[in-house]
User: Fold this.
Amino acid sequence: MRRIGFVLLIAILLTGLCAACGRIYSLAQLGGARQKGMYPNAVAGMQALIAQGYRGVQKVEIEYSGPNSFSGRQPHVWFVVAKVWADSRADGRPIHEQGYDLPGSFFLRVNEGWVYLPEDAFPMVIGFFMDLFGLEGR
Assistant:
């Protein structure tokens, strides 16, 4: 019986530690994203990324802009996909041989607007902790 109590205590402590780390990570990522730029909507954010990431942009078409989840979960986590016709990428690399690039980016809604988060920042995980701790307005 003692052993079960000890295992249960460890499980509760680990759950609390994971939740605390998730909250701290999410707040740090959202804070850093705010400092890099706030946008009135996800499409405006994508257009700003395109303006920074491409040279000689001739045309942009938004292919998709909406919640990343088709089930409606995490409505504050959006994914935007655009077709971009341009001379080159800002880093000098050429556009795809088909004549356009097809970039996609994550944007999360916060109280002041929308912020961009790269995939390697785990935006879906941050979206989960935003739901869990009510961070959408932070």
